[in-house]
Specification:
Radius of gyration: 15 Å
Strand order of the largest sheet: 3-2-1-4-5-7-6
Oligomer: single chain
Largest sheet: 7 strands, mixed
Number of strands: 7
Structural class: alpha/beta
Number of helices: 6
Shape: globular
Strand content: 15-25%
Order of helices and strands: HEHEHEHEHEEEH
Length: about 180
């Protein structure tokens, strides 16, 4: 990737006061509505992470503006949104800097693992998938599934938060050096 995207990501993260901090990316964008999390699920997750002083960076597309705006209403100093309309390669550089990524079942899974960033995924009834590492990149990966016949929106918000906090602790326990 051209170094100009890395530079743009760095400058934007500096403006958002995240460049020298650990942060988690939460992807709000889904193409298929069956893969969408609810406002309550996102609010519970963000509030739980922020309560522990964990910084959150929201990634969104124009179709997610109302959701992004609603999530920012809490005015938490720990949650910010990445600016709209950035090049995919710049977003890849941002994801590369994240501690881990939370995403519904979208292409974000593949982007995060391609840049070697651990990922937590919310799936609609996928059945049994091996937890641990996402192949072929061998990146730390975990997920939560909806029950058979249910949608992602049917998963209890507190259950998502609990599993994400476990994942966060597992990531922190493996850190031996700062990420580049």
């Amino acid at each position: 990737i051209d170094s100009s995207y890395e530079y743009s990501a760095k400058k934007t993260l500096q403006q958002l006061e995240l460049f020298d901090k650990s942060f988690i990316v939460i992807n709000l964008s889904v193409r298929q509505s069956k893969n969408a999390c609810t406002l309550q699920q996102y609010e519970t997750l963000i509030a739980g992470l922020n309560k522990l002083s964990i910084h959150v960076l929201l990634l969104w597309m124009p179709a997610d503006k109302a959701l992004k705006d609603q999530l920012l209403l809490s005015n938490s100093p720990y949650t910010v949104a990445y600016p709209e309309g950035r090049h995919l390669f710049e977003v890849c550089e941002v994801i590369k800097k994240a501690l881990w990524v939370f995403t519904p079942d979208t292409g974000m899974i593949h982007i995060a693992t391609a840049v070697h960033t651990p990922v937590f995924v919310v799936y609609q009834e996928k059945g049994s998938i091996k937890q641990g590492e996402w192949w072929p990149f061998m990146v730390k990966f975990t997920y939560i599934n909806s029950q058979k016949g249910d949608l992602i929106c049917d998963i209890e918000a507190q259950e998502i938060l609990s599993k994400c906090l476990e994942f966060h602790e597992s990531i922190l326990s493996q850190i031996t050096r700062p990420r580049s």
